[in-house]
Amino acid sequence: MRYGLFVIGLMALATPAHAESRAEYVTMVLQAFATKVECPGTDVAYQDLVQKAKEMQLADETTEQVRKAIAYMHTGGKMGEKQSDDLMTEVAVATRATDADQRRLGMTAWCEAQKTRLSGFIRAKN
Is the entire prediction scored with pTM above 0.90? Predict the structure, then answer.
């Protein structure tokens, strides 16, 4: 009985840690794509985002799911695909946080900050 409760407790503790990691990753991907859209001369290093997901031990399809969720949400469903409710919620939260940062810093300062924060995930367009 104690062993069963112990295992259940460990599972309960492990789930939020994974969710938090994915939420951080969702924010990073959203900000990388926002930088591509909002900051002239910037592109996304997609394969580096895929590698980061692997390093964070996220599922193989995570990057593509996040990309599709972002596209779906930011185009009103015209592009991308709706994903799970929890992923769509994470994208919405990341969007609100990013919008707030952009308003607080101003777009020029935000773009400059992203060059440092997201180095390795964004690059200058050729």
Answer: no
